[in-house]
Amino acid sequence: MPLMITNGRLVTAASDCVADIFCEDQQITAIGGNLPAPPETTVIDAAGKLVFPGFIDPHVHIHLPFMGTFAKDDHRSASLAALAGGTTTYMEMICPARDEQPIEAFELWRDKARADSCCDYSFHMGVTRFDADAQRQLRSIVADHGVTSFKVFLAYKGAFGVMDDELYGVCKLAAELGVTVTAHCENADLVALRQAELVAAGKVGPEWHEPSRPVPVEAEGVHHFCTFLQLTGARGYIVHTSCRDAVEIALSFQSRGVDVAIETVIPYLVLDDTHTHRPDFEGAKYVMSPPLRSKEHQAYLWDALAAGHIATVATDHAPFDFDAQKRMGDPAAGKDFTLIPNGIPSIEDRVHLLYTHGPAAGRLSLHRFVAAASTNAAVQFNLKRKGDIAPGYDADLVIFDPDYRGVISAETHRMAVDYSGFEGMPIIGRTEATILRGRVVDFDEPAPGLMIDRR
Ligand code: URP
Ligand code: ZN
Ligand code: ZN
For labelling, which of 102, 281, 373, 383 has a CA lying 20 to 30 Å from the CA of 365? Predict the structure, then answer.
């Protein structure tokens, strides 16, 4: 059934106008003033509302075996939460164990998403072992399945982390295939050494997570990764950049011609290291890696985002319950911060928080907001027909009410996790309706999402 959205203020990364949008066969087919609506057309009057391209989250974890447990969402709960927050497409990290076959991991993650996701989706293929056999399988995942990005962890020694010879091989393969290497950049050895020192000194609470992986540890990781990009000619993307030093190093490599893009994530923009000092182990809710930093770093990230130095704002959605899971690292039970599952759930809140603290606070233009939350990810990762409002694009649209005022709470969120890291935070504006490929999302009977071929 055709869909027409009338009188909305259409805002993209590059344009801003009041117009009607006509959608048919899952795509936008016309944009203009007073468009005719054929019989059977569903018409939504969006007067007074903003209309954005569907938002894209380029970094989420849904199926995530990690630190002795599993992240809480499944693809249904995560995708419905995403859609409620205006995200129509996400990119999930496939994180195989080192002894797992890459192709089997790809099929496992793909089949879970295929069965349950109500958002459109793609993947970054995690490379946690790189040898001749893994290389053969990675070639097939790129060529036969259209997953055209890899993910490497320079952190998490003994788990997902790769060695330097493996990193070199992954980058060389990526350069040959023309695919992007995304990377978690922290020096894994330094993290392990500092964790051991702190725990031995009895510094075991969540507030010691940041000192175990301070700014220079991340900065070294970024320098390390960019050096491998420089030597191999691979295209890179640094995930969850948390601090000034890391951004500046990436920019210095960019200025020397290295093709590397910078992502930050919403927790770094609205939370800071003081949150991990909250009493009664509540600080564990805010343990993620790299860690939340000081307000000075946060202010720098906003400036870098406004200047366009940071390309994308993702979530790094990684939901672990406070009670049963974060408590795995509770000193009251004889444990320590190194055992707290890392991650902050945020797939539902990213767009609303970014709008509230960005355009609504005068920190970000509406165009930069759309670019960072949608368009730049589409361009970076070749998500064809996503990230813009134009004829021929998928009819992924968000009708957004800028006059809404509310508050975030775990009591009302859709994510399958028992807390919100943003509990009580005020929200200005919210998603009123989400449209995925021309259908208004019905949360009682959602339609299945599709995997995007990025070749
Ligand atoms: O703390 C985090 N970031 N958890 C998810 C795994 C990762 O490193 O992205
Ligand atoms: Zn990471
Ligand atoms: Zn992540």
Answer: 383
